[in-house]
Amino acid sequence: MARTRAAQPGTQAPRGRQLDRDAFVGLYQDAYRTLWCVAAGVLGSRNAADDVVQDAAMTAMERLDQFELDSDFTAWMAQIVRFTALNRGRREQVRRAQSFESGGPEPTDEPASEASPVLSNGRLRRDQDAFDDVVVAALDTLDDTARACLLLRTVMDQPYRRIALTLGIPEGTAMSHVHRARARLRTALVEARGGVGAGARKEGDR
């Protein structure tokens, strides 16, 4: 994942003037990690998330005149990222289907990290940089909005109000998605490890 400045609680365009390219670049850098989480949530993995965010940025720069001044930049960009990721996912599905029909080799995913990036309570480790097979499998059972909510909460530690604004959903829905996603990850991790740690203290619960 590309390293950029940490996202701010809210990112708004400068007041009283049209959003120009210089202003766009600054806001984009501030929002990058949030946008990456949205892309990874839609794609179901971190593969190609950087490319999706960059493609979305190119699209957004062509639509600067459509951005409403004084509105939330991150929420606006998140919608573009979401649509870009959905389109990429559809193209990938078509490519996989064509490869299967032609008898070609199946695309391989990135190698998994040996250390689990998720704690027993479903929270991502702060030092993790990859998803292991168990976590990926569990994340694949979630819809794209639930995955994005989980990543924004666990990776970015964003408040539910902010997650709701970014994804354009009610705050209660964001909370529900995160709660169910964490429960699913906890179950998947316990089952994968033969039930070890099922009764352990839920580290980091809030």
Please characterize this protein's 3D structure.
It is a single chain. With 206 residues, the chain is an all-alpha fold. The protein folds into two domains: 14-105, Rna Polymerase Sigma Factor, Chain: A (Orthogonal Bundle); 114-195, Arc Repressor Mutant, subunit A, CATH 1.10.10.10. Helices cover 55% and strands 0% of the residues. The chain has seven helices and no strands. It has helices spanning 21-43, 49-61, 73-101, 133-140, 144-154, 160-167, 171-192. The longest helix has 29 residues, at 73-101. It is globular, with a radius of gyration of 18 Å. 33% of the residues are buried. Mean pLDDT is 76; it is low at 1-8, 108-124, 126-130 and 196-206.
Q: Which of globular, elongated, flat, extended, rod-shaped describes the shape?
A: globular
- CATH topology title of the largest domain: Rna Polymerase Sigma Factor, Chain: A
Mean pLDDT: 76
What is the count of structural domains?
2
CATH architecture identity of the largest domain: Orthogonal Bundle
Distance between the termini: 27 Å
- Strand-residue fraction? under 5%
Low-confidence segments: 1-8, 108-124, 126-130, 196-206
List SSEs in N-to-C order.
HHHHHHH
CATH class of the largest domain: Mainly Alpha
Q: Specify the number of helices.
A: 7
- The helix fraction, in percent, is 55-70%
- Main structural class: mainly alpha
Main sheet?
A: none
> What value does the Rg take, in angstroms?
18 Å
Give the tally of β-strands. Answer: 0
